[in-house]
Structures are given as structure tokens and as C-alpha cells.
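A quick word before the example. In earlier lectures we treated sequence and structure as two separate objects. From today on, think of them as two lines of the same record. Here is Superinfection immunity protein written that way.
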Amino acid sequence: MDADTSLTTDLTLLASDPKLWLILTFYFLPTLLAAWNKSAALPLCFWVNLLAGWTLIGWIAAALLSLAPSKNDMAYRNRVRQAKDDFYLREAEKSLSTPPAP
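And the structure line, produced from the sequence above:
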């Protein structure tokens, strides 16, 4: 048995190990939830989960990111639209209430 065959056999056994898949599923659970919910923060959630998920704080941060609203969520779009309208309204009020400098 040469080294290539041994490595292939080891990788095949590793890929078929149910414990490994259970651990990976739990590790990437925040990313999977973000994908399932079509979260607006899916890419950020994935990278936080991948790079910092091994720490408890990183995993919790990714889990919180996975709760971000969906891009297609009507309430989310309405909140964004309302925030933009409020911003423009405040800016217009500022420009109208401030007298021009002589």
C-alpha cells in the first residue's frame, strides 16, 4: 500500500465520519441559519463564523448576525426607506432653519 492510497483511504474515512459532520454542522450553524433566513448579513456572518467562530465570542457574534433581517423582508425595506426619508427631512429642515451667512 503506497502513501497516495493510504491518504485517499484516510480522507474517505474522515469524510464519512458522522461525528465530523455533526461538529461541522454545529460550528457553521449561524451561517446555515443566515442562509436559511436569507439574511442581509450572510457574507459577513460566514466570514465571522469561519475566522472567529472557534472562539465563543466569535460564534455568538455570528449567531447574532444570522438574525439580521432578510433583504427581501418588507418591514426591513420599509425601515430603510423611512430612515432615508427621515435623514433627508432633517437635512432639509436644517438648511431651511439656518440663515445664510452674510
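Notice the following. The chain has a mean pLDDT of 83. We will return to this example when we discuss secondary structure assignment.
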